[in-house]
Amino acid sequence: MNLTIAVTDVAGSRTYASEQFPLSIGSNEDAAIRLPEGGPDIPVAFLGYSGERFFVQPGSASQAATLQGRPLTESRWLEGGEVLQVAGCAVRFAVEASGLRVTVEPDSGENVTVPPVVEVAPRSGPAPEIDDEEIRPLEYRRDGSGVALRPGRKFPVAGAVVTAAIVILAVAAWFMFTARSVEILVSPEPEFVAVDGGLVFKFGPRYLIRPGEYRVLAELEEYEPLNATIEVTGQRAQSIQLSMARLPDRLFLETPNVAGAEVLVDGESVGTTPLEDYPLRAGRYRVEVRADRFVGYAEDLDVAGGGSAIRKEISLVPDWAPVNIDSEPPGGTVLVDGQEMGATPLEMELRSGRHELEVRRSGFKTWRQTVDVEPDTPLDLPTIEMRPSDGTLVVRSTPDGATVLVDGEFRGRSPVRLELDPGRNYRVELSQAGYKSASRNIRLRSGQSRTENFRLEAVTGIVNLSVAPADVELLVDDKPAGPAPDRLELIALPHRLEFRKPGHVSRTVTVKPTPGIPQRLEIKLLTEEEAALAAIPKTITTAQGSELILVPAGQFTMGAPRGEPGRRANEGLREVKISRPFYVGVREVTNREFREFRRAHTSGTAIGFGLDTDDAPVARVTWQDAAAYCNWLSNQDALPPAYAEESGRLVAVWPPSTGYRLPTEAEWAWASRYSGRDRAPTRYPWGDTMPPTPGSGNFADMSARAGLQQVLTSYNDDYPVTAPVGRFRPNALGLFDAGGNVSEWTNDLYRAYGGVNQSLMVDPNGAEEGRYYVIRGSSWRHGSISELRWTWRDSADEPRPDLGFRIVRSIN
Hints:
By secondary structure, the protein is mainly β. About 10% of the residues lie in helices and about 40% in strands. It is built from 6 helices and 67 strands. It is flat and about 155 Å long.
């Protein structure tokens, strides 16, 4: 920034010369205002520039000046318009864009001969620290008083001075342009700080420094001298923080009673005692002292730092103690933790801790005792009274593992070696589960060795076996026992019985015979196929929550014999085998379930009644609709589809996948007529004779007579059309509505079976081509003998109000 100085005014008949010149004010220079009569060495005030603001501060003759009518006693910021009264003149300050303009004007009425001098000079000290809260420009008030002017002297400006000032200002301008404001903060605050390495000007905590490398030197009591290199960059304002390290304290440690003890600081060995002048910086340390055969010492040491001496004298406690032991008679061999130490009487030194002591002497029992030795604490043991040695008894039994009691006290399991007092009677008793107990009275001499053998008598029980099929091999406790007998006599203990036969799955059971109470055990080995079927879950559930039940494989006669009332020509007899088990839906698919797949579907009405309730079986669906629903449901359960698209239509994949599908006609007939292995299938869903028994199913009954021509006049199921699925009793397998409610689509294309087929048909799946699909099962519209039979067959290619479906799923 520039400083412009002007001296102008007229007093009486004299005109003062007016001169203006720019001066560069850097942060290391001040413009001084001096008294004329005192010469340049008596400054009234200084002008300066800091933080992009001008300020004025008092000089050594500040008592001769007032600012805004108040004595100049402290530094003030200049905002422009302020007036400094000095030597009968008014020094006015104006802040302009280019810098600060200073105008010196003699007051009117004063006889001023020489105005005050304004000049630029390097500052001898740091820039003042100015508090914004305390420095406020004051409003100028003229109080009317003045200082007499002394005319006749012009403002002196010599050519040499001007030239020197210009050079100084140029250098100052160059420095001001290239220097950077740097704040150097040293923590903690040092007593002395200096910056070395070039031209440096200090203003409070900040320095004006040109970019480059400098060294900061600082000193403070109890701290290591700071000698740090800093790098001043081209950034305009910078802040550099430095820290001084506290001097370390010095540790002196002695152990008067031990020489060469190891000293550790925070787990690291730092020397041996006496330890001298070991430096420790401020902080907390774990100090340990270790020496062989002495108790280790440890303490936490807080170090303040600052160069102090820390002196420690530690007396280590011996980690051993003298132990005295004697015996009667003397001469016993002393062992400590299995190591021989000498003979009684004996004084020995033992390390602190727990020790096992023994005293042995021929002809006497070994004395044993556990002792705890305390550091540096003598231990005198009472005299040991040696007792004559025991006799030795070895107890064996057949079988091994019997419990051995001596005078009722448990002493182990046979075979066992016992030490017993001589000259005393003992009762030795053996017992084992499944055997009778045995006992004997025994007396031993001192030093005698004796063996007693006990043979235990077994206690048995009877197990009667019923095993199928024949020729099953038996293993008892993993030992072969030949073909499984009808009767086993076994010791009254738990036994593991294993039954084996080739082609069958082995079976293992555990039995525990009871004496006097025979047991009966029935074993039936399953073939591998039967076992695999038994391992299959009996029921599964779809993603919609519908239940499917497992149907076993089997062989049956399909169709009806000639002469059966109601038989039709397409019901010829044929032998059919279902080779693989499969799952079948327990209930018919409902309107609710189907509408999850196809939301807009409606089953409509029939004979004036609705078919569309959520729990009623879905109706008015085509075979294609049913197949599409099965593929959708397979996708919900992440199963492969059972139908593939060909020419815009779905066709069954064969062999079938494990996805959901419609049952084949043979699967439907096998599941619906299923009666178990020991009973013949019935002719109707309820039995072999007409009419239906109450609760047999939903057929054409009296409740539907207003809409149907042929009804069962002696039967009423209370539902003129469809009923909720599962309302009537299930068949022998557990299927609901296999007969009644709605007829059901099957997977097969229709073909007629007229005569008797002599060859066995395995997993038949209908005609290879055709238009019509097989329909099985009676519905709510059927009331004739022909339609109500299990063997009734129908076909269609269009939907009907009494036609729905149920789903099946292959296992593999």
